[in-house]
Amino acid sequence: MTPEDLADDLDRVGYLPDAGIATAAFLALRMRRPLFCEGEPGTGKTSLALALAEALRLPLVRLQCHEGIDASQALYDWDFPRQLLHLRALEAAGPVDAGEAEASLYTRRFLLARPLLRALEEAPCVLLVDEVDRADDEFEAFLLEVLGEHAVTIPELGVVRAAEPPLVVLTSNRTREVHDALKRRCLYYWLEHPDLEREVAILRRRLPELPERLAGQVARAVRRLRGMELLKPPGVAESLDWARALLALGRTELDARAAAMSLGAVLKYREDVERALSSGVPAAPLHD
């Protein structure tokens, strides 16, 4: 496989990569290194991991990071309600040795595999660690250890090691800086919003019924919106939503009236809508 082959495979499943993204993903595969994708929201970081799983015909395991996430939420936990029912059933059956009863509680049948453990057990797979910048420093250090060893020790069961390292894609919206130690383990790629030609191609690929002229108008308008100081600049997902809204309204042109009627599909804050309307961005000339 070459970067070009991988680009073709991604294209086949509906993800249109540029040469840089395809090369970074190819190197992550070939070098067996995690791929750290950073960029503004809506630039296709998460979509890349989903597309890689589909293109490579691998299962996808997703770990959604959030503030306060800990090891038990990411790795494994014990099913305490089932353990309690099991213990009660043992007691009801008659006298039982305490040591044997306790040992029977900590077997694989009562283990709840969270995303990281599932990825180790199901490898080869694609492991998506989404929005790692939302987790805290302690979790980041834990993640670094697991990704470095591709194994984890469960005290009651022993070591679980991946037969083959998963393809790991980490994403960050850069709400905070991720530590250098984690980045050093990874290949790094910064994703930009697509250029005009590529965004039009994405719109046409995802919405075949969208007229080419309207796709170009939507892409140009979105690029103008991204150039404004908005609370939430629109990503590709919002471009698609806007195009879908215009199609639902039966519009074939993105004129000022159509834009004003449908801005809620692309902008998600009142302040952003007001700023766009007052700046006349949707009403600006949108000719090819």
Helices and strands, with pairings:
Elements: H1 3-12, H2 19-31, E1 35-39, H3 45-56, E2 60-64, H4 71-74, E3 76-78, H5 80-93, H6 98-105, E4 111-113, H7 115-122, E5 126-130, H8 137-149, E6 151-154, E7 158-161, E8 167-172, H9 180-184, E9 187-191, H10 196-206, H11 212-226, H12 236-248, H13 256-262, H14 270-279
Parallel strand pairs: 1-8, 1-9, 2-5, 5-8
Antiparallel strand pairs: 3-4, 6-7
Helix pairs in contact: 1-2, 1-3, 10-11, 10-12
Keywords:
alpha/beta; Rossmann fold; 3 domains; five-stranded parallel β-sheet; two-stranded antiparallel ribbon; 50% helix; 14% strand; disordered C terminus
What does this structure look like?
The chain has 288 residues and is of the alpha/beta class. The protein has 3 domains: 3-67 and 120-191, Rossmann fold (3-Layer(aba) Sandwich); 77-109, no CATH class; 196-279. 50% of the residues lie in helices and 14% in strands. It contains 14 helices and 9 strands. It has a 5-stranded parallel sheet, with helices on both faces. A hairpin with a 3-residue loop joins strand 6 (151-154) and strand 7 (158-161). Helix 10 packs across helix 11. The longest helix is centred in the C-terminal third of the chain and has 15 residues, at 212-226. It is elongated and about 80 Å long.
